[in-house]
TrEMBL record:
It is a multi-pass membrane protein. Residues 19-428 form the Major facilitator superfamily (MFS) profile domain. Keywords: Cell membrane, Membrane, Transmembrane, Transmembrane helix, Transport. Its main location: membrane. The chain crosses the membrane at residues 31-50, 56-80, 92-110, 116-136, 157-180, 192-211, 246-268, 280-300, 312-330, 336-355, 376-397, 403-424. It is found in: Cell membrane. InterPro entries: MFS, MFS_dom, MFS_trans_sf, Sugar_transporter_CS. This is MFS transporter. It holds the Pfam family MFS_1.
Length: 437
């Protein structure tokens, strides 16, 4: 297992900036679409599509449909990774954005159980599956467009752009939900207001598409195509020659993604149902913490260009183990200042673990299989992390009656991610050469 060493062909600063902007905006909007479902699952999906169940069963069912998107993500990563390595990154990014936007608007227009019966949850799962395929192909392509356009020595910093699009999407999703819940009565929100954030996706996707269509193809892919290193089945080469790298990359992401989704989704349910706070209060706490999350990404990505991906990721993973152990005890104080502190610290640490990830995952694989390899590692980690986390947190709290069980789950997956990064090589070429010297 060796990290890549090839240099990305130089591009103009204007092209690089456009690629970074496209990666950030496109990812933010795709994740806005993905996250509004998570927020809706915590607040309204249960009663709308699974009526008649107990509150616990309805919430569990809603989070189960949330997990469906994660199950679909590796399919999107594999399929779009294959064609992204065969015909180019840009076309797959346009396709992923189109699929995500269409599925999100479809959920906003979908009749509920009362209107069409059992067809409602079936169609909901189908649309959620399409969302998962779309977002499964998005991350790898957006990361590669940013890192493969980056100037020498700035791959980590440029790669932070699509990572920062994730909390930006969270902010947009929760600001919209907060506005809707504050402007409408509870009855109006439950009846039709929850659909507004989904329908707004049509406008946002249009803006992202306009930016994305103006970006040139990745120079690294163009070079691979010109040198005729493109292979017929990139995923086969990934699975036969790079399977260990894929599994370790996935392992590094389990805690970052799993804890982040509990932080973004489950805590909304926990704060309203267990601590007695309003939806607006919990959404506000999350919105305030998200800019800190983005700042953590930017700083750690920049430092990874200087200190190395592995070193920054390792120290961030150690910090995540510590914060994971104290997060829910702080939330359980039910004190707004203490809860806000917990949210901000958790956001900062999650940001530092996510910052170097784009460059790390891109540098683990050569250009001709990079889309497939990076996407597969990311999406496997997403299933084992974020796909299971809200469901597991809900079940653990119900089974044990205490958040201590959720804390133990946090710590275990944080340790798994720490061990995984320790088993990976340094991928920052300059840092590796300096260490050898």
């Amino acid at each position: 297992m060796t990290a890549i060493t090839e240099a990305t062909p130089p591009v103009s600063h204007k092209e690089a900036r456009r690629a970074v902007l496209s990666s950030f905006v496109g990812t933010a909007i795709e994740w806005y679409d993905f996250f509004i479902y998570g927020t809706a699952a915590a607040l309204v999906i249960g009663p709308q599509f699974f009526p008649g169940a107990s509150t616990f069963a309805g919430t569990l069912a809603a989070f189960a449909t949330f997990a469906v998107g994660f199950i679909a993500r590796p399919i999107g990563g594999v399929v779009m990774g294959h064609f992204g390595d065969r015909i180019g990154r840009k076309s797959m990014l346009v396709l992923s954005l189109t699929m995500m936007g269409a599925a999100t608007v479809g959920i906003g227009l979908l009749p509920n159980f009362e209107a069409i019966g059992v067809a409602a949850p079936i169609l909901l799962v189908a649309l959620r599956f399409v969302q998962g395929i779309g977002v499964g192909g998005e991350w790898g392509g957006a990361v590669l467009m940013a890192t493969e356009h980056a100037p020498e020595g700035k791959r980590g910093l440029y790669g932070a752009a699509p990572q920062m699009g994730v909390p930006a999407g969270v902010i947009m999703a929760n600001v919209v939900f907060l506005a809707v819940t504050q402007l409408l009565s509870d009855d109006a929100f439950q009846t039709w207001g929850w659909r507004v954030p989904f329908l707004m996706s049509a406008v946002l996707v249009g803006v992202a598409m306009w930016i994305r269509l103006g970006v040139f193809e990745s120079p690294a892919f163009a070079e691979a195509k010109e040198s005729e290193t493109i292979v017929k089945m990139p995923i086969v080469e990934v699975l036969t020659r790079n399977w260990r790298t894929v599994l370790l990359a996935a392992g590094t992401f389990i805690a970052t993604n799993g804890i982040a989704y509990v932080f973004m989704v489950y805590v909304l349910t926990y704060g309203t149902k267990e601590l007695g706070y309003s939806r607006a209060t919990m959404l506000t706490l999350l919105i305030v913490a998200c800019p800190v999350w983005m700042a953590g990404m930017a700083v750690s990505a920049w430092k990874s260009d200087v200190l190395g991906r592995r070193r920054v990721y390792t120290w961030s993973s150690i910090a995540l183990v510590i914060v994971a152990a104290v997060f829910f005890p702080l939330i359980d104080t039910a004190s707004i200042p203490v809860m806000l502190l917990a949210m901000i610290v958790m956001a900062a640490v999650l940001g530092t673990t996510a910052g170097p990830q784009s460059a790390l995952f891109a540098e683990l694989f050569p250009a001709h299989i990079r889309y497939s390899g990076a996407s597969l590692g990311y999406q496997i980690g997403a299933i084992l992390g974020g796909g299971l986390a809200p469901f597991m947190a809900t079940w653990l709290f119900e089974a044990f009656g205490t958040s201590t069980a959720v804390t133990a789950y946090f710590v275990v997956i944080a340790v798994v991610s720490l061990v995984s990064i320790l088993l990976l090589p340094e991928t920052n070429t300059k840092r590796r050469e300096a260490e050898a010297a």
